[in-house]
Amino acid sequence: MIVGVIGGGQLARMLALAGQPLGIRCLFLDPAPDACARTVGELLCGDYGDERLLDELASRAAVVTYEFENVPEASLRYLASRVSVHPRPRALALARDRWHEKRLFADLSIPTPSFAAIDTRADLEQALAVVGRPAVLKTRTMGYDGKGQRVIREARDADDAFSALCGTPLILEGFVAFEREVSLIAVRNTAGTIHFYPLTENIHRNGILVQSLARPGDPMTPCAEAHVQSILMHLDYVGVLAVEFFQKGDTLLANEMAPRVHNSGHWTIEGAETSQFENHLRAVLDLPLGATRTVAPSGMVNFVGHLPEASAVLAVPGAHLHVYGKAPRPGRKLGHATARAPKERDVLEALRRLRALADAGPPN
């Protein structure tokens, strides 16, 4: 059985690895000849809009999915006329544009930071009068891992922010003095069955996720599950969906959603009964979903820009190393390590040691 995957990065790679024990093979479409997923499946190398390659993908795959949001919606709609595509193109269209995404949250009565669409410098001035400062000016599309955004703290910051980002549609969002960042990952199949993973507590640095910790039984879980379920039902969604929230007091403010497997769910590979990657494949292929409960306290640390020595990572009790096979460069996710232990305090210690390795700089 073949699953077509748009994109050949680390998420596609982990999907393929999860599928291998189930007899599922992945066929990737990516413009980069050195896409890291190429070592675990066949790569069709070319543009995402290449109709010849899209036709080949549709003819060979039982279903097509995608690993990131910056896929042309037109390509997914072209594929959907020939083969099942999950999550459906509408989910991607909403998630890849921050304005439409925030409007979806608002329509479903999910709290968000204040926001306003920005097309001109005058729009920005008017929006700042309503949203207030500090605020974050963002590109509506193509921004990820902290890219495509500027914080406006003082009136003089507005000109620089607009000059840096203008030329593409923008959105202004109120700056949230949050207490913590959390995410909820859910999976829904074609029959409408929904399973939730435990709420995950996340730490970001410069817009890039550096650490996640599973929080089973977290008191904010019911609120997060209600919000995510409303999105799943509204979109008739199939596959894994991740929603990131800011927690402020007893309120969760939706920041963004990802219609795909998600970085904050990497801990599920060793820490959950069924990983998010396996469950995504199960969902899009209409196979029974696996249990999402944790098997032990678990977390994850990203390695960004460089990889520590494997021996140092594996010396941390409960650590499991995942290397993506990507060339190092600043800000690039090159791998991660999960940590699993019988007690939460042991996981926290493992994460502390792994963060120290991640922060230490490249090995000599």
Secondary-structure blueprint:
Blueprint: E1 2-6, H1 10-19, E2 25-30, E3 42-45, H2 51-60, E4 63-66, H3 73-80, H4 89-95, H5 98-107, E5 115-118, H6 121-131, E6 135-139, E7 149-152, H7 157-165, E8 170-174, E9 180-188, E10 194-196, E11 200-205, E12 208-214, H8 221-235, E13 239-248, E14 251-258, H9 268-271, H10 276-284, E15 298-304, H11 310-314, E16 319-323, E17 333-340, H12 344-359
Parallel strand pairs: 1-2, 1-4, 2-3
Antiparallel strand pairs: 5-8, 6-7, 6-8, 9-10, 9-11, 9-13, 11-12, 12-15, 13-14, 15-17, 16-17
Explain what the structure shows:
The chain contains 12 helices and 17 strands. The radius of gyration is 20 Å and the shape is globular. The strands form 3 sheets. Strands 9, 10, 11, 12, 13, 14, 15, 16 and 17 form a 9-stranded antiparallel beta sheet that branches. The protein has 3 domains: 2-85, Rossmann fold (3-Layer(aba) Sandwich); 114-174, 2-Layer Sandwich (Dna Ligase, domain 1); 180-359, D-amino Acid Aminotransferase, Chain A, domain 1. The longest helix is centred in the last third of the chain and has 16 residues, at 344-359. Helix 1 crosses helix 10 and helix 3 runs antiparallel to helix 4. With 364 residues, the protein is α+β, with helices and mostly antiparallel strands. It starts with a strand and ends in a 5-residue tail after the last helix.
